[in-house]
Design goal:
Mean pLDDT: 93
Order of helices and strands: HEHEHEHEHEHEEHEHHEHH
Number of helices: 11
Shape: globular
Number of strands: 9
Largest sheet: 5 strands, parallel
Radius of gyration: 19 Å
Strand content: 5-15%
């Protein structure tokens, strides 16, 4: 059996057994709390801190809900009014927070690698959970996407999955690839304009397809990504109308996928840019299921790291 995790900063190199254990635990959490209508006191007496240096709605809220449903105390650290906004070094902030006897720090930061730096500099037994760092990793999003797919298409070895959009700047794409490849998916296709694609050497397990009509042909699931404008140089910004014509998911393109293809998106959605509204809200959309699964995955991760 793979060892219990102390931190979760990336899914890269995590064994399949560990990922499957977290997915199974998420389903058990969902049943134990009656789909969120009942609290369980697995983490009573534990304290969890949300440390978000970037804006977030879904991730921060679902981590807070997950911790509270497990009986933990939750502190939301307001960066705008903190000493970190006055020039305090990140590690001084970390040590100050550790002195308050926290059990877990959930961190989102614009600089890739920050969660691992916090792990290296932590002086206590605090657990660090990555809620998204730069364009590097978003492990709980990768897990909830894998869980959503497994609920409808559990035979990972025979799946074809397309990830389309701004792959270059997407931490979600990286964590999705790490999760899906660990679970046995052999056909992962990455699609987007050449300027928004990473170096092929970073993803040797994936097929790079620039033409979206070819990329989506026969796939079982398609994960659409938003344009990460905040991480792009001005020269990289595409014309949105032209982008939608080439890389937007509409009903015509969706018809090229396998019947019943799962439509997914990590949010926030830019309607009419990467996805049409009738597809985002259509019968094949699993976007709201992803949001719901996010709470149970984050409960599973907190349980894995903090349960006595």
């Amino acid at each position: 059996m793979s060892p219990r995790l102390r931190h979760l900063t990336t899914l890269e190199h995590l064994p399949r057994e560990t990922i499957e254990r977290l997915l199974d635990r998420a389903m058990a959490m969902r049943d134990a709390c009656a789909h969120g209508t009942r609290k369980i006191d697995l983490l009573a007496g534990r304290t969890v801190l949300n440390l978000f240096f970037e804006p977030s709605t879904r991730t921060r809220t679902s981590f807070e809900l997950a911790a509270r449903r497990l009986g933990a105390d939750v502190v939301n650290f307001d960066i705008g009014f903190s000493s970190a906004n006055k020039g305090e070094e990140l590690y001084d902030t970390l040590h100050t927070l550790e002195a308050m006897h926290l059990d877990a720090i959930i961190v989102r930061h614009k600089v890739s690698g920050t969660p691992d730096e916090l792990v290296r500099h932590a002086m206590s037994g605090v657990s660090v959970i990555n809620a998204g760092d730069g364009n590097r990793a978003h492990p709980t999003q990768g897990l909830l996407d894998a869980l959503t797919i497994r609920q409808h298409r559990p035979d990972f070895e025979n799946l074809s999955v397309a990830i389309c959009g701004d792959v270059k700047h997407s931490r979600v794409a990286r964590s999705d690839v790490h999760a899906l490849s660990a679970l046995g998916v052999r056909d992962i296709r990455l699609c987007g304009p050449a300027s928004l694609m990473p170096d092929a050497a970073e993803f040797p397990q994936c097929r790079f397809v620039e033409d979206f009509d070819r990329a989506i042909e026969g796939v079982d699931a398609v994960i659409m990504l938003r344009l990460q404008k905040e991480r792009m140089a001005q020269t990289d910004l595409p014309d949105e109308a032209a982008y939608f014509r080439q890389y937007g998911l509409d009903t015509t393109r969706l018809a090229k996928a396998r019947k019943g293809c799962l439509v997914m998106h990590p949010g926030p959605i830019n309607r009419g840019i990467e996805i049409a509204s009738d597809v985002a809200d259509g019968a094949q959309s699993r976007i709201l299921e992803q949001v719901g699964n996010g709470v149970f995955i984050r409960m599973a991760v907190l349980g894995e790291l903090l349960a006595r």
